[in-house]
Write a structure and sequence with these properties.
Elements lengths: L1 E14 L3 E8 L3 E7 L16 E7 L8 E8 L1 H4 L4 H17 L7 H16 L5 H18 L18 E4 L6 E3 L11 E2 L13 H20 L8 H16 L11
Antiparallel strand pairs: 1-2, 1-4, 2-3, 4-5, 6-7, 6-8
Helix pairs in contact: 2-3, 2-4, 2-6, 3-4, 4-5, 5-6
Length: 259
């Protein structure tokens, strides 16, 4: 059993003295685990950084075995973002969400393609893409929820069926609610940021915070809660960073905010 395909490195854990247990995501084969012999060596470690795009070669004697994996670097996203705390936190969050929520060996090409595009885009122009990339990250989380079977219904108001003035989302059903029909439940609803309805809108730090709270609610309850897992620590750190930005009204993020 073997395959070769473009893959994103989602995580890598040292195993023994020189090997790594790695998780990669491909468009055709989905999430795969494998043992990278020599992955912890000086030559191998740079390949297996989360967010890197590689050409992966996986093989095993039997289909249900862990298998061995080799990688050839295509694009080193992680190394390009070491001096950009917010963008590095975005990369870490997206990789951790995909790694922790997607079922193993089940293809989700839409998730892979958009994640590949986002990581390449952010890493090639980390300064110029900051605002647009944060909105795109939240949209990718909406895509991830949909692929997992927990899609949000943001096309029309759950009460009236109309598509105008949608400003809220029900935390129970995931359906949009117009401001006119929020009524007495307004305090219980989740704010719906405009950039989730308008692809040309990049949003503000406060709207990014609202977007992350919205998707985070459903990721925590459905994608991770059903597996009895918490949201990944990387996703929590990103939320904290964006919340600070919204509170301060300043898009600059000090480097010490990212571990």
């Amino acid at each position: 059993m073997e395959w070769e395909a473009p893959a994103l490195v989602l995580s890598a854990t040292p195993y023994g003295e020189t090997s790594m247990l790695v998780h990669v995501l491909t468009g055709e084969h989905g999430l795969y685990h494998g043992m990278a012999r020599g992955g912890a060596s000086r030559q191998g470690r740079p390949i297996w950084q989360a967010g890197n795009l590689i050409t992966a070669r996986w093989n095993a004697r039997l289909a249900d075995q862990l298998g061995g994996i080799r990688g050839e670097m295509v694009h080193a996203s992680a190394a390009r973002l070491l001096d950009f705390p917010l963008q590095l936190a975005m990369l870490a969050s997206m990789c951790a969400l995909a790694d922790g929520s997607l079922p193993e060996r089940e293809a989700h090409p839409a998730v892979f393609q958009e994640l590949t595009r986002l990581l390449a885009w952010i890493s090639l122009d980390p300064v110029g893409t900051e605002q647009a990339a944060m909105a795109a990250l939240v949209r990718w989380e909406v895509c991830l929820l949909s692929e997992l079977g927990f899609g949000l219904d943001l096309g029309a108001c759950a009460v009236s069926g109309q598509s105008g003035n949608l400003q809220w989302v029900s935390p129970r059903s995931g359906r949009a609610v117009s401001d006119e029909h929020a009524g007495q439940w307004r305090d219980r609803l989740l704010p719906l940021p405009p950039f989730l309805l308008d692809p040309s809108c990049d949003g503000t730090p406060a709207q990014w915070r609202d977007g992350l709270r919205l998707t985070g609610h459903f990721l925590a309850r459905d994608a991770f809660g059903q597996r009895h897992r918490p949201l990944p620590a990387a996703r929590v750190r990103l939320m904290d960073m964006v919340a600070k930005m919204a509170e301060n009204g300043d898009p600059a993020v000090p480097s010490e905010d990212v571990e």
